[in-house]
Amino acid sequence: MRYLRFIHNGKPVLGVRTETGVHIVGERDLESLLADGIDLASFGHGAVRFGEEVVVPEDAYLTLMQRPTKVICVGLNYSEHIDESPYDRPDYPTLFPRFNSSLTAHGKPIVVPRISDSLDYEGEMAVVLKSGGRHISREDALNCVAGYSVFNEASVREYQFKSPQWTVGKNFDDTGAFGPELVTPDELPAGGKGLLLETKVNGEVVQSASTDTMIFDVATLISTISEAITLEAGDVIVSGTPSGVGFGMDPKRYLKHGDIVEVSIEGIGTLRNKVVDELK
After folding, report:
1. Model confidence pLDDT, tens digit, residues 66-90
2. Burial of 165 (0-12, 13-18, 19+ CB in 10 A)
3. Which among 64, 108, 148, 234 is least buried, having the fewest CB atoms inside 10 angstroms?
4. In terms of Cα–Cα distance, which of 270, 277, 208 is closest to 242?
5. Is 122 in contact with 238 (CB distance < 8 Å)?
């Protein structure tokens, strides 16, 4: 099943995409469905049979999840990306939070803040949980996954490196693009492995890697995070970016007003956003 959120007749609704079109599920959001323990793979079949079929305009998409319970991001999770960074290969996942106020939707702008010109793209695979807990074994970890999506974890490098903690540079408003769809695990390889992830800026491929090359795979991330943090239905883990970010180029290539950024993951979809300057 492939879920998306969008505006229809002036209201936010949840839909399921099939080969024939998008069918409206209703006005509930993914967060409430997951909190109630509803299995998304089976729930969507009812919408296909009975839901109204509609066309979704490009500008009607909403952030896949408006208020995830937690968004936990992973840094330095591809070896070649580490090579272009000022860091050594980690032996433990590099984790930091993203806040809901930083999220934006497919088709909506990613905003260059007025106080910096160092906004950088980071194409990543997002993992949405349907259950959680503490001390989840690696063997059981994938049973917690509700689905996978696409994320552009755009970072304001100047502020990321102002201190040893990355949180500020990773949380400017309207920099974390999320969507357009959530794909349930039955449609993908276990753990989202072996999928081609590519980022394009103005049509040029700047990042290209297989999710097989993550240092810490999805099961390991879920298990490791749960050693310290109680994971919950509706949590999102953003699993890291491959090499090719603008910070690693010489000269550095940061996003500017008018750029179009597309992050594509095989079998999941393409997240597309225009870059705009923050209004003065």
Report:
1. 899 999 999 999 988 888 888 788 9
2. exposed
3. 108
4. 208
5. no
